[in-house]
Amino acid sequence: MLFRGKVSLRSYLDIKQIIWAILLVVIGIILSIIFHAIGSCKAFLPMHITVMLGGFILSWPYAIAVALITPLLNWIFTGSPPFSGLLYMIPELVTYTIVINALYRRNENALFMKRVYLPLLIAMILGRLTASLFQAVLFANSVGLIAFFASTIIIGFPGIILQLIIIPGVMYGLAKAKFIELNLDN
User: What is this structure's pTM?
Assistant: First the structure.
């Protein structure tokens, strides 16, 4: 017998996490389609928002799944980002989720500002460095790592500002609505 005692599939799969993950993937794709339609996807980085939220809300395996699945499905359904963009976007998004998840879980008793903004800022820097490293290696041109990093900051600046406003706002709203546990005393 493979399993002893009462072991169900529910033991291995967390339905609540799966529902959150599916919701974040769907919202990420919808936001991407909307922002592509108005021609500002590169500037506002809508897919990043739901992936980063996944880093906060989900356990790390589900968060990483959102970071992998969202850009792949978006590429399959819309052709965007282009395949060459997937090669550095996926490692960037995975880096976001790993960093956010680790720092968020590590500071469980921290106040809202430290628990949400600190992981978000550190993840933004490390994720963009990861994307820049992959771009520099994959495209092996004379532009280099620093130029790629600077371009991700300059081109994505409106998205960075949007992420710094929306993600903490959504986290605050989810905590107020008791969907997640988060210390709001600051």
Answer: 0.86
What's the CA gap between 160 and 155, in Å, rounded? 10
What CA–CA distance (Å, rounded) separates 102 from 28? 22
Query: Rounded to an integer, what distance in angstroms lies between the CA atom of residue 124 and that of residue 132?
Result: 12
d(CA 58, CA 16): 9
User: Could you say which architecture CATH assigns to the domain 16-33+42-176?
Assistant: Orthogonal Bundle (1.10)
Nearest CA to 93 among 39, 155, 24? 24
Tens of each residue's pLDDT in the chain, 186 residues: 344 445 455 545 788 899 999 999 999 999 998 888 887 666 778 899 999 999 999 999 999 999 999 999 999 988 888 888 888 899 999 999 999 999 998 887 778 888 899 999 999 999 988 888 887 777 776 566 677 777 777 777 888 899 999 999 999 999 889 888 777 765
d(CA 48, CA 36): 14
CA distance 175 to 157: 27
Closest CA to 155 of 179, 135, 185: 135
